[in-house]
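Hey team,

Filing this mostly as a record. A colleague (T.K.) asked me to run one chain through the structure pipeline before their review meeting, and I want the input and output archived in the tracker in case anyone asks later how it was produced. No errors, nothing strange. Just documentation.

Input sequence:
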Amino acid sequence: MVQVMASPKIETQAPIVHATYGHGPALAVVMAPVMPWWDEGRFFAPITERLVALGYKVMIFDSLSLEIPFGQADDLTTFTQAWRHILQGLGPLQLLAGSALGGAVVQGLLGSRWGRGIPAALLVSAPTAADARLDQRLGLMAQLARDGELQLALEFLDRWILPEGQAPLPTALPEKDLAQAGRRLTRGFGYLHGIDLRNAVQDYPGQLLSLYGAQSQLVRAANVSFARSPKHLAVSIASSGMRPHLDEPALVWASIREQLRLGAQVGL
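Output structure:
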């Protein structure tokens, strides 16, 4: 497999942050999940490597680098609309993808006229509709982060992104901006409270694939609740938690190629 370049091109646009991999003719945009610190897009590496090898330029955006101006409603609808204004200036997209919060943003974008023109969309552990369990767990981590209990919030996050029953490694806080990390968790998890994006997904005419872990402790089958059709497919990845693309990269990629017909988009 072709490896992603070790040092991506990192760009900041007052204050939008993203990493670019590859130089192919087809453009794929990826929206990141809630992370306490930006990781330059490494969270998506197994899929990015294959997209680059296939002929895509992959732009991975730090979703939480976009700040809603003071005085505006800071909710998922406003957040998604603000991202649409940024992304629609990139030119034609062949693939729009997102993980967790990033996938919720993607689903909101698919309900717009601009989003409906994108031929393929990929969701990884992305909730379409919240339920009581998801709201409770995300709300707990958001509250802990808001209260300054970042260590505890991260311990819950590290535990719940793993498959059910798998023990996490001890959590150690790095020497980074802890206050900013707490704000990112509070804000990011807050966007997902009570969401219901089923109508936005239903109206999307393109190819859609939603992947989630069968052993996920956060986004589960109950949250991937859009109507299935030949164009709109949800796939459960056995023995995986919130990161099926890391747990089963070959299986995930096979599902992506089959459902989203990515080779056809770059002439392969």
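Quick notes for T.K.: The longest helix spans residues 132-146. Residues 37 and 177 are 9 Å apart (CA to CA).
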